[in-house]
């Protein structure tokens, strides 16, 4: 029997078997959410306000921060709603929209990390032409390309969710909507929706990683050709923050994939916890990494927080 997707509801799930502890679990999660909002919000404010940061490298960093904010703001309302208020119901339209933004922003993050690798590649391989190659217009086009690629690639599977009948249990396994959860509840042929995401992951996320890896191979080759040890260290130091962000993102991707592929007999709470790590750890760590490893960001933060004192 086909159900009306405009009136039917899904039920979100917090931590099964730990419902009495939901309020306590929400405290550290809220702390992480607030830290993500403050950290990435501060980066965006600094890059917009500080003219010293009006460079391609920091424009791409702003894209990364905006993406991390988007992921957080997309998941936070339903997660806290489930943990605080036990508000588990979500309409099909809202659920599909949330799934679309979650998966799109994950692809965007991979694309932005690739764009940042391209930025470092040009800065080190062709420093004299860096600003003429990566103009503001070029940076904007790259950003739009990353966003368009992600949005269009995810759209086919999300559109199909509206067509499926949902006659099984309407209970989802997370406190937010994921495509792979929703299709398990569909009473229809979901072959396309099972295979297409695999193609997207291999064609985009994996390809992005391989291109990033190859770009750093060329960067390392260029740096090793620099005669001065001090200059070599200086060149590599500009890449450290980006490399750390790449590791944070792709290690969580591999971890989540590993759990889903080989942890079928693991407790559900392990799968749920890993999904939270995947969505929260990179947005939490990226501002920390750039604040610690990038002197210009450090200086901007010091100026930002010393401004009220200087006025006083």
From TrEMBL:
Molecular function in Gene Ontology: G protein-coupled receptor activity; olfactory receptor activity
SUPFAM superfamilies found in the cross-reference section: Family A G protein-coupled receptor-like
Transmembrane recorded as keyword: yes
Stretches assigned to the G-protein coupled receptors family 1 profile domain: 39-290
Record's GO cellular component terms: plasma membrane
Keywords associated with the record: Cell membrane, G-protein coupled receptor, Membrane, Olfaction, Receptor, Sensory transduction, Transducer, Transmembrane, Transmembrane helix
Annotated compartments: Cell membrane; Membrane
Function: Putative odorant or sperm cell receptor.
Name of the molecule in the record: Olfactory receptor
Organism for this UniProt entry: Acinonyx jubatus (Cheetah)
Gene behind the chain: LOC106966106
């Amino acid at each position: 029997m086909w159900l009306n997707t405009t009136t039917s509801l899904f039920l979100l799930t917090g931590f099964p078997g730990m419902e009495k502890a939901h309020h306590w679990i929400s405290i550290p999660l809220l702390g992480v959410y607030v830290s993500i909002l403050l950290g990435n919000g501060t980066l965006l404010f600094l890059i917009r306000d500080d003219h010293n940061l009006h460079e391609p490298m920091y424009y791409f960093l702003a894209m990364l921060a905006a993406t991390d904010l988007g992921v957080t703001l997309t998941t936070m309302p339903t997660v806290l709603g489930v943990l605080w208020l036990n508000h588990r119901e979500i309409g099909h339209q809202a659920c599909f929209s949330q799934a679309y933004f979650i998966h799109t922003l994950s692809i965007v993050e991979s694309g932005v990390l690739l764009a940042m690798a391209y930025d470092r590649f040009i800065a080190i391989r062709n420093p004299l032409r860096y600003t003429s190659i990566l103009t503001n217009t070029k940076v904007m086009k790259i950003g739009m390309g990353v966003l368009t690629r992600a949005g269009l690639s995810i759209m086919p599977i999300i559109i199909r969710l509206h067509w499926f009948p949902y006659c099984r249990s309407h209970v989802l396994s997370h406190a937010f909507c994921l495509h792979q959860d929703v299709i398990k509840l569909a009473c229809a042929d979901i072959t396309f929706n099972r295979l297409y995401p695999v193609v997207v992951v291999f064609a985009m996320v994996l390809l992005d990683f391989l291109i990033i890896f190859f770009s750093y191979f060329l960067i390392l080759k260029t740096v090793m050709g620099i005669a001065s040890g001090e200059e070599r260290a200086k060149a590599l130091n500009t890449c450290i923050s980006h490399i750390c962000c790449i590791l944070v993102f792709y290690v969580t991707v591999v971890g989540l994939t590993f759990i889903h592929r080989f942890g079928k007999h693991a407790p559900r709470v392990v799968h749920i916890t890993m999904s939270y790590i995947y969505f929260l750890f990179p947005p939490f760590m990226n501002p920390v990494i750039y604040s610690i490893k990038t002197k210009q960001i450090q200086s901007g933060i010091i100026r930002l927080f010393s401004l009220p004192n200087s006025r006083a």
